[in-house]
Structure formats: C-alpha cells, structure tokens
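Retro notes (design track)

What went well: tokenization of the new backbones is finally stable.
What didn't: we kept losing track of which sequence belonged to which structure.
Fix going forward: every design gets posted as structure first, then sequence, in one message. First example under the new rule, 596 residues:
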C-alpha cells in the first residue's frame, strides 16, 4: 500500500438509458472492490457516469479531473482505460496530467500506468480506444447502409408503420394495424383539396383518435401540426426513402420493401397542394370562392364579404346596419322602426390592393353561382354517354398491356446493362492491373460508380412507376369523365367546401371582369365542350365484332362515333403529360357523404 495515493474510482457505461445502466456499473464496482481490498487502496470517491466517451465534455468526468486538479486525489482506478476515454481530447488531458505527476497512477485490473508510461503506452491504449470508436462507427454505418440497400430503412418506422421482428439487424417494417388506415385517410383528405393541414389534424385527433405510438418514455400523445407537415413530405409513404451512401456520403433515394400507403403520383400531387396552399390563414368567415378568382382589371384577389342592410320604414332610405344603429338620413333608431327587416347578402368584390382606383363593382353570390352552373352545364355528359366512355377507356387500357410489356423489357435491359457495368467497374478497380492505380484512381472510381448508380436509381424508379403511372392515368381519366357527369349535381347540393372543389377542378385562373366570369378551363374540359357539339347516335343493333358494346337492359349503346373516341384519347394524352391537373374525386366524396 502506498499511503500517498488517494484514488478516485471511475465507472462508465456507454448507453444513456438508466434502466440498462445499473447492472453494468455495479459489476464494474464489484470487480474493482477486489483490487481495493487486496491492495488496501485508499478510495476518496466513486464516480459513475452514463455517457458515451466518444465525444469530450462528459460532466462527471470533467468534475473528477477538476477535483484532481484541486488535490483531492492523485490516482484513478477504473475497469479499463477505455472507460476513461475514447476520444483524443480526453486522452490528451489524462496523458498530460500523468506526465506532469498531477495523476501519479491510473490502475486497471490488467495493468497500471505511471508517469513514465504517459508518452507511449497511454497513447497506444488511448489510440486503441479511439480507433475502436471509429471502426465501430464505420461498421454500424456500413451495416445500416446494407439494410437500406435491401429495402429496409434501418431506423424507427414513421407513424403508420411499425418495426417487426425480434432479431436485431433483421427487423422488417410492417403496416401498423392501429394507425395505417388512419394515416392513409389523412393523405386522402389532403389530396381531395378540400381540407387544410390544420383541419386534417383536427379530424385525425378528435374524430379518428390518432395518437403517436407509445414507447418507453415518449409517445401516446396527439401529433402536432409541424409533425403532420413532415409526414406529408416523406417519400416513405409512396415506397421510397432517402439514405446516405456509406462510401460516397451522398444521399440516395432507395426503394423500400414496405407496403406503400399512396402512389408516387399522389405523393407529388400532395407536394403541389402543400406548396400552392401554404399554411392556412385564420378566417373570421368562410367564403367558398375567395382566392379562386382574380380581378380582370387590376389582377387583385376577389374576396367574399357579408352585407347586412335595412330599409328605413320612415324615409325608405336603404343603408348598411353593420356599424350603424340608426338611419343616417332621418336618424330614427333601427329598434324604433316598425316592421323593419334586416337583409343579408354575400358579395364578391375586388380587394383593389394592386390598384385602389379599380373600377370593378361587386357581384352577388347568386349571380356568380349562376355563371358557375352555366360552365358546369357546358361540360356535362349524360349517363349513357359516360357509360360508353368508361367502357372505351377499359378496352383501351387492356389493349395497352403489350405496349407496356415492351417498354418494361427495354427498361429492364438497360437496368441489367448498368448493373453489369457497375460490377465490371468494381472488378477492374480491385484487380491486380490497378494495383498502382494504372486504370483509374480512387476518385475516378467513385465518380464513375456514382454516375452508374444514378442511372440504376433512375431506371429502378421508371420500372417501378411505369405500371403505376399507367394505372394513375387510367384512374385519373375515369375520374375526369365522372366529374363531367356529376359535378353539376354536387355543386347544387354540396356545402361551401364541395362547391369550391367543383370550381377549382375546372381551373385556377378564372377572372372576374364587369361582373362576368372569364373562365380559363383546363384543356380537357374544352375538348368535352367541343365533343358535345358533335353528333353521336344511340343504336340498338350490334354489327361488327371489333366494335365495343355496352349491354344495358335496354337499349344497347355502341361506341361508333370517331369524335367520342378521339376526345377520350386526347384527354388521356393530356392527363398523362400533365400530372399536376387536380380533378375532384367524386367517388370518394360520395362515400364521405354516405358515411356522414
């Protein structure tokens, strides 16, 4: 025993989870107790810490060194040198204090370090600990990247999904049976175009009862609006996720093996909706068409406003009664008027923000809606014609299977070629011929590898999306023609939100000039108007076998009109090339109405 040595015991466990700390730290203390008793060491204090040593600035460790500087102790007893430090900054402090004699001894069960060992041995041991951290970090990143390339995002699954499986490193991601359908409904509400993010959050929280997944210390609470925005931004929900390449450090979009919640088309449509609508602004009063129209004279916004008017029973003067309690002409109090009636009107007018001298007058909502109905009537298609169109769409869709297969084969061939090029590139890089970088340097290898992987990622997305894109256009086409048939009825019977959805689907560039709406509709609606001006026939007889039939109880309709088929083909082409066109889904709207 050296009576001059006063020991601090330091025990540490990397994990900061207290419930997993106690056994490990107590085991270290028990092991050190044998040394204390055997060598009769004088211990001043035991320090325990639940922090990783890969980074400096551990509070307990710093406290211990501070007290050593004050002379309270001059020796350290620990389980291993890596318990004290796994980073060069803390290792340097220990090395310096040991070399200067501030710390006279650092003792572990396997060896003892003295001031003479500070220069070499402690550096080697500290370097070993630091190297372990670096290698561990690389191995963890490499392992996580490997899981990502296999299609499994190696972190906690986002809300709506759960991590399944017990074996660490081989867990999968499955739909959360409690939350998957709720999150899917929230996406559908957003895609309908009739709800703000705040409204969707309110519905999910209070009507659906959505709560985050309960974990050990967090979760089980309603989600926030900011978190909901993050949900709507994540590509994970259409089957992809971003992950950094372990070698290049570049982020890549990877295809996941989990079940997608929405299509890629709907994801990008949602991003456009979020970007166009932005954060909802508070409203005192909701008006269906505010923000849909621009002034045709000064380009300011057209907004709705309430007007409350009363006609004086004495002098017959008509005035606004919102901010007045008496007739401005004869001064009689409104309450004193016999039989006075307060009338309510809704007007839409130019804000005149861009030109205070704008000459445009307001228009009553009834007159505005009459014009809207006229435009909806112009694109209206009757049920028999809709049935013909839907049947033609289905036949055309089935006939495109061979064409789709040919495109897939071409893309698959290009994908296989890129994979072979990547394999050959790697083989050449590690070959004997390139031992002195005669073929290409590491920088050139990584650049070529990055370029080929970018090609592979692009081809993968195209292969994944080709069938989905076909289905998206197919569904969008049916949605469009169903909208033409039923939009007018929904507009007449619907609430403010439904009315807005019907009009916004026509186009977002309507202008109001001289109390007339100057519609700038999407091109497909113009095609429908033109088609309605053409003649089509309703036939009972069935003639050629290659002519598409639709058998109703009576009569039989036959697609024999070139104008009808041509219109459908033109609309299909336009929708395929302009995926940002937003048409209200009336099937979902009808189901929503039935459920409520």
């Amino acid at each position: 025993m050296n009576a001059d040595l006063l020991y601090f015991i330091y025990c540490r466990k990397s994990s900061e989870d207290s419930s997993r700390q106690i056994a490990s730290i107590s085991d270290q203390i028990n092991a050190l107790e044998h040394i204390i008793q055997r060598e009769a060491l004088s211990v001043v204090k035991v320090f325990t810490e639940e922090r990783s040593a890969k980074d400096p600035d551990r509070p307990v460790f710093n406290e211990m060194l501070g007290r050593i500087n004050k002379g309270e102790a001059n020796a350290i007893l620990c389980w291993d040198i890596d318990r004290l430090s796994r980073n060069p900054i803390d290792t340097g402090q220990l090395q310096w204090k040991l070399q200067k004699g501030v710390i006279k001894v650092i003792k572990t069960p396997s060896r003892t370090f003295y001031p003479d060992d500070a220069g070499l041995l402690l550096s080697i041991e500290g370097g070993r600990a630091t190297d372990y951290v670096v290698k561990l970090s690389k191995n963890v990143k490499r392992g996580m990247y490997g899981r990502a390339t296999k299609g499994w995002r190696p972190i906690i699954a986002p809300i709506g999904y759960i991590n399944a499986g017990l074996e660490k490193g081989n867990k999968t991601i499955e739909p959360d049976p409690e939350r998957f359908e709720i999150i899917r409904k929230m996406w559908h509400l957003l895609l309908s175009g009739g709800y703000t993010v705040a409204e969707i959050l309110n519905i999910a929280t209070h009507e659906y009862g959505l709560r985050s997944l309960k974990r050990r210390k967090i979760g089980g609470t309603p989600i926030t609006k900011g978190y909901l925005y993050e949900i709507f931004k994540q590509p994970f929900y259409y089957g992809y996720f971003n992950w950094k390449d372990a070698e290049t450090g570049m982020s890549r979009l990877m295809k996941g093996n989990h079940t997608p919640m929405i299509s890629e088309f709907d994801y990008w449509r949602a991003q456009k909706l979020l970007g166009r609508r932005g954060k909802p602004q508070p409203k005192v009063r909701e008006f269906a068409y505010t923000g849909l129209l621009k002034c045709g004279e000064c380009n300011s916004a057209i907004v709705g406003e309430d007007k409350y008017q009363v006609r004086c029973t004495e002098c017959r003067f008509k005035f606004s009664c919102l901010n007045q309690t008496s007739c401005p002409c004869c001064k009689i109090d409104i309450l004193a008027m016999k039989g006075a009636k307060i009338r309510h009107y809704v007007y839409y007018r130019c804000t005149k923000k861009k030109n205070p001298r704008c000459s445009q007058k307001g228009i009553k909502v009834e007159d505005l809606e009459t014009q809207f109905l006229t435009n909806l009537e112009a694109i209206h298609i009757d049920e028999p014609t809709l049935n013909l169109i839907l049947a033609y769409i289905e036949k055309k869709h089935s006939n495109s299977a061979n064409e789709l297969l040919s495109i897939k084969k071409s893309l698959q061939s290009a994908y296989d070629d890129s994979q072979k090029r990547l394999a050959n590139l790697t083989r050449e890089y590690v070959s004997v011929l390139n031992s002195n970088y005669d073929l290409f340097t590491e920088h050139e290898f990584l650049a070529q590898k990055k370029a080929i992987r970018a090609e592979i990622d692009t081809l993968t997305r195209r292969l994944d999306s080709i069938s989905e894109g076909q289905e998206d256009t197919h569904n969008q086409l049916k949605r469009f023609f169903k909208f033409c048939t039923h939009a007018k009825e929904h507009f007449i019977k619907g609430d403010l939100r439904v009315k807005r959805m019907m009009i916004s689907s026509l186009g977002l560039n309507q202008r109001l000039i001289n109390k007339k709406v100057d519609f700038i509709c999407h091109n497909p609606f113009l095609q429908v108007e033109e088609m309605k001006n053409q003649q089509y026939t309703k036939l009972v007889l069935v003639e050629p076998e290659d002519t598409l039939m639709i058998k109703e109880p009576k009569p039989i309709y036959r697609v024999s009109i070139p104008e009808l088929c041509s219109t459908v083909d033109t609309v299909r082409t336009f929708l395929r090339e302009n995926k940002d066109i937003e048409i209200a889904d009336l099937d979902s709207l009808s189901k929503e109405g039935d459920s409520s």
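Added context from the reviewer: Residues 17-23, 276-284, 536-560 have pLDDT under 50 and may be disordered.
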